[in-house]
Amino acid sequence: MKIKSIELIEINLPLVHFFETSFGRTYERRVILTRVLDEDGVSGWGECTAGETPSYSEEWTDSCWQVLEKILAPMVLGAEVESAAKIWDLMKNVRGNRMSKAAIETACWDAEAKKLNVPLWRHLGGVNREILCGVSIGIQDSIEQLLEKIQTEVDAGYQRIKIKISPKWDYEVIKKVREVFPDILLMGDANSAYSLKDIDKLKSLDEFKLMMLEQPLAHDDIIDHAKLQREIKTPICLDEPIKSPDNARKAIELKSGKIINVKNGRVGGHSESRRIEKICRENKIPVWCGGMLESGIGRAHNIAISTLAGFTMPGDVSASKRYWHEDIIEPAVEVSEKGTIFAPENAGIGFEVRRDRIDKLAVRKIEIR
Length: 369
Prior knowledge:
It contains 13 helices and 15 strands. By secondary structure, it is of the alpha/beta class. The strands form 4 sheets. It has a 7-stranded parallel beta sheet with strand order 5-6-7-8-9-10-11. Strand 5, helix 5 (about 145-155) and strand 6 (about 160-165) form a beta-alpha-beta unit. Helix 1 packs across helix 3 and helix 9 runs parallel beside helix 11. The chain is globular and about 60 Å long. About 50% of the residues are buried.
C-alpha cells in the first residue's frame, strides 16, 4: 500500500437530541472525516472521533485538524508499506494524538479491504457477523424523561442500557430506574466524576446489580481503580486510561477492573484495537466497543471491530436514527428487533459514503498530496 493523497473534511452534524455527560451537553458534532487515495486509485474513509473541546481527551477538533494536516499526513504520504496494519508504525514517532492517527489508519484499512474485495470486518479477523448492541443515554432534565427514553430503547430491542451518571445524578436515579426496569442489563458511566472519597456512595450502587460501573475515577488512573474494585462488588469497566496494549496489560495485572471498553479513536485505530482485544481475550477480560457520537463512517468502523472474538458484551453501536436525522452513509445503520446489527458483506466498511451530503455539510476541506 502506498498512499497518494489524504483529504480532510470537517462537517457539522446536528444531533437529534442533546447528549449530556459529566463533561457537559453536546447539541452538534464537528466531525473530521478522512479520505485516503492509494496509487491504484482506491479510496478509503475514516473518522476522527475527537470532541469539540479537550474534555474527554487532550485532543479536540481543531488540534486534530492541525496535527493531521501538518504532521501525520506528511508522514504517511508516499510511504510504501506491506499492509494497512503497518500504517500505525509510520506515525509512531508522534506521541499521543491517537484519535488523529486513527482517522488515517482506519481509512487505510477500508481502502485495503476494498482492494482485496473483502468486507473490512473479515479482513480484521472478525468471527461474529451479528454483533450485540446497547445504547448510551445521557443525563436528562428529569428522571421521568430518562425513564421515557429507556422505555423507547427497550421497546426497540436494545440488549443493554447505559446511563451517564455524576455525583448529582446517581443513586436516586438508578434506584428509580431499577424500580421500573428490574431486569434489564443496566450499567452506569461516570466519565471520571468520582474519587476514592466517594467510596461509600459507590459501594451503595452494588444493591442495583449493575452489569458494570464505567470509569468512576480519574481519567488516567489504574491504581485507585484497583483499590476501589477490591471494595465494591460491581465490576469496574475501564475506558479513558486504556490507550494502548501496554496500558491494558498493566491494568489487568493490577486488577484495576474486570471489563475494558475499546474505542478505535482512543487507542489509535484498528491495529491497536486488535492488540488490546487479543491481550484481554487471553486474560479472560471481556471487551466491548464504546461510542463517541460517530457519524455513519465511524459507526461502520465500530461495527467491523466489534466482530472480533473478544467483543462479547453489547457495545455502544446503535442505529443511525438515534443520533442523526440523516446520516452520511447508505444504507443507514439499523438494529434488528432483538438488538443486533449484522456486519455488511460488501467490500470495505460495507456502506456507500454519501459524498453529496458530506459536501453539503462541509465547513472546511483540504487535500494533501
